[in-house]
C-alpha cells in the first residue's frame, strides 16, 4: 500500500460529513522501488488549477503517482500551441482599484512634465500629433506596468481557461465564495479534529453550492426562453465558397470574412460634390465650433467615459484617465489634434467584433453579423468633446428637422410612438384610412458616402477647423475582424460612419436630414388641423405617412 508509505499522507475522502482514508493504491512489493512519488490531490486544488468548477464537488481526492518504467523509456506529452489566442499577447491589468499614487508621485511627475514638454514641442514646433501621442501612451503604460496588478488568468497556456468559459453564469461573487470554501477546507484539514472548523467548512460549502445552483437554474431558464445573449456563442469556422459549397479551412474562412466586410465598408462613392463657398448660403456663426478645446470640456468628457469597457488598439482603459495628470496630458493631445486637423494612427485603427444580428438564421454568413469597432478610449474622449459641440450648435441653429428625434437631447422614440398611436386611433374614430410605410435601412451607417456627408455638413454651415477635425477621423481608416480568437488581414475602410463611435448618430442625422424636406414637399401626408404629417425619423428608422 502506497498510502502513507511514499509521498504525502493525506485524507482521500473529504466532505462536510467528515474526512477519512477510503481510497488506496497497492502495488507488488518488488515494484516499490519503481514508485518515485505518490500524492493525494484534493478536488479543490484540481478545480483551482484547471479553473473549472462543477455544480457539485466530488468528495474523493485524486491519487497520482510517478512510476519508473522498466526499460527507462522516457514518457513525454506534447501539445500544439501554434494556434495562439490573439489576447495572449496583451498584458491585461486589474483597473478596478486605481491607487492614489497613479501618475502623481514625485518621481513620476518629473517624467510626466518632461513628456508634456515633448508633447507640446511635437505639436507646436513639429506639427506632429503622432509623436506626441506615442509619448502619452508610453507614460501611461509605464505607470500601469509599475502600479497595477496583472490579471493572471489571461496566460498563453490554452488549457488555462477561466471558469466563466465553462460556466456562463460564473461571476465574481461565486469566485469569492469558492475561494472561501478552499480556505476553510485547508483550515479544517490542518486542525486537530476541530468541530468549529468543520462547521465553518460545511456552512461555506453549502452556501456556495446553493448560490451556484440558483444562478445555473436562472441561466438555463433564460437560455431556454431566448433571453440569454446569443453573442456568447462562437462564430462557426465555416463559410460558403463561390460555388455554394461549405469550406471549413480557417485561412479561407478568415479571407471570406475580410472580403465580405471590405466590400461592405468600401462601397463605390459616386457622389463627388464640390465644397465651395457660395455667396447665397446662409451665414452661420461657427465661432463656438472652432474655438480651442477647453480643459473643462476634457474634464467633462473624461468623467462621462464608461469604465469596465474593452480598450482599443492602444490598450489604454478609461479608468487610468480619470485623474488630473491624465486630464492635463489629454488636454494637450486633443488641442493639438483639433488645431492641426490630424489624429494619431491608433485612433484610425480598429478591431471589429462581429455581433450576430437578431432575427438572422445563418451563422455561416458574415453579412448576418453587425460589426462593432473597438476604438481607442482617448479617441472617445476627443469625439465626446466634438459631439457635444456639434449637438449644441445644431440645436441652437435648428439644423435638424423637427421630424428627427434620434439621439437628440430631451427627445425620445416614445414621443414618436405616442404620435403614431394617436394619429392612427383618431383617424380610425373619424373612419379615415391611414397608410404607414415603415423603413429600416440596411447597413445604414456603413453605406454613407463620405464625400456627400462632408458636402451636406458644409451646406449646413459646419465649417472651419471643426469640419477638418471631423474629416481627420476618417482619413486612412484601417480595420481587422476578430473571428473567435483570430484576426483577419487588415483592410482600408473608405465609406460609412464608424459603428461604435459617439459621433456616428449625429453625423448620420446630418446626412439624412434633407430627406424629411423632400418627402414633405410631395404633399402626400396626413392632414392634422393645419399641419401635414408626412414622415417621422429616429436615426435610420423611418415611418412615411399617406392618406390613400
TrEMBL record:
Segments forming domain Reverse transcriptase: 336-548
InterPro entries: DNA/RNA_pol_sf, RT_dom
Record's protein name: Reverse transcriptase domain-containing protein
Organism: Mytilus galloprovincialis
Amino acid at each position: 500500500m502506497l498510502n502513507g508509505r511514499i509521498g504525502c499522507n493525506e485524507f482521500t475522502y473529504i466532505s462536510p460529513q467528515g474526512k477519512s482514508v477510503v481510497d488506496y493504491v497497492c502495488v507488488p512489493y518488488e515494484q516499490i522501488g519503481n514508485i518515485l512519488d505518490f500524492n493525494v490531490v484534493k478536488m479543490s486544488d484540481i478545480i483551482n488549477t484547471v479553473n473549472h468548477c462543477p455544480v457539485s464537488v466530488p468528495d474523493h481526492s485524486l491519487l497520482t503517482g510517478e512510476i519508473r518504467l522498466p526499460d527507462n523509456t522516457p514518457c513525454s506529452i506534447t501539445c500544439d500551441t501554434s494556434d495562439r489566442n490573439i489576447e495572449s499577447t496583451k498584458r491585461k491589468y486589474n483597473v478596478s482599484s486605481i491607487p492614489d499614487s497613479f501618475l502623481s508621485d514625485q518621481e513620476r511627475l518629473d517624467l510626466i512634465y518632461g513628456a508634456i514638454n515633448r508633447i507640446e514641442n511635437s505639436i507646436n514646433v513639429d506639427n506632429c500629433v503622432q509623436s506626441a501621442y506615442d509619448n502619452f501612451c508610453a507614460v501611461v503604460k509605464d505607470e500601469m506596468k509599475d502600479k497595477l496588478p496583472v490579471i493572471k488568468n489571461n496566460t498563453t497556456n490554452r488549457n488555462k481557461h477561466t471558469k466563466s468559459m465553462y460556466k456562463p453564469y460564473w461571476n465574481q461573487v461565486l469566485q469569492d465564495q469558492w475561494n472561501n470554501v478552499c480556505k476553510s477546507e485547508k483550515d479544517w484539514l490542518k486542525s486537530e479534529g476541530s468541530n468549529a472548523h468543520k462547521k465553518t467548512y460545511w456552512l461555506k460549502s453549502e452556501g456556495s453550492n446553493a448560490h451556484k445552483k440558483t444562478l445555473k437554474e436562472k441561466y438555463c431558464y433564460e437560455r431556454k426562453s431566448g433571453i440569454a445573449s446569443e453573442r456568447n456563442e462562437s462564430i462557426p469556422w465555416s463559410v460558403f465558397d463561390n460555388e455554394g459549397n461549405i469550406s471549413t479551412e480557417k485561412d479561407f474562412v478568415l479571407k471570406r470574412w475580410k472580403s465580405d466586410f471590405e466590400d461592405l465598408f468600401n462601397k463605390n462613392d459616386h457622389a463627388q460634390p464640390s465644397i465651395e463657398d457660395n455667396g447665397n448660403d446662409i451665414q452661420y456663426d461657427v465661432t463656438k465650433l472652432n474655438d480651442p478645446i477647453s480643459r473643462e470640456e476634457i474634464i467633462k468628457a473624461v468623467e462621462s467615459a464608461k469604465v469596465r469597457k474593452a480598450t482599443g488598439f492602444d490598450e489604454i482603459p478609461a479608468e487610468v484617465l480619470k485623474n488630473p495628470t491624465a486630464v492635463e496630458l489629454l488636454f494637450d493631445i486633443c488641442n493639438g489634434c483639433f488645431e492641426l486637423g490630424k489624429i494619431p494612427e491608433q485612433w484610425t485603427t480598429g478591431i471589429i467584433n462581429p455581433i450576430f444580428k437578431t432575427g438572422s438564421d445563418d451563422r455561416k454568413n458574415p453579412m448576418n453579423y453587425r460589426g462593432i469597432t473597438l476604438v481607442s478610449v482617448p479617441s472617445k474622449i476627443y469625439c465626446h468633446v466634438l459631439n457635444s459641440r456639434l449637438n449644441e450648435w445644431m440645436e441652437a441653429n435648428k439644423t435638424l428637422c423637427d421630424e428627427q428625434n434620434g439621439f437628440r437631447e430631451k427627445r425620445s422614440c416614445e414621443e414618436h410612438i405616442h404620435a403614431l398611436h394617436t394619429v392612427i386611433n383618431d383617424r380610425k374614430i373619424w373612419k379615415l384610412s391611414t397608410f404607414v410605410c415603415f423603413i429600416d435601412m440596411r447597413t445604414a451607417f456603413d453605406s454613407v458616402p463620405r464625400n456627400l456627408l462632408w458636402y451636406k455638413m458644409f451646406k449646413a454651415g459646419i465649417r472651419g477647423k471643426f469640419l477638418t477635425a471631423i474629416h481627420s477621423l476618417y482619413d486612412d481608416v484601417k480595420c481587422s475582424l476578430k473571428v473567435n480568437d483570430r484576426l483577419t488581414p487588415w483592410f482600408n475602410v473608405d465609406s460609412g460612419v464608424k459603428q461604435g463611435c459617439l459621433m456616428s448618430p449625429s453625423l448620420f442625422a446630418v446626412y439624412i436630414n434633407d430627406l424629411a424636406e423632400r418627402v414633405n414637399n410631395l404633399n402626400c401626408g396626413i392632414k392634422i388641423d393645419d399641419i401635414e404629417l408626412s414622415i417621422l425619423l429616429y436615426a435610420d428608422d423611418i415611418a412615411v405617412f399617406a392618406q390613400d
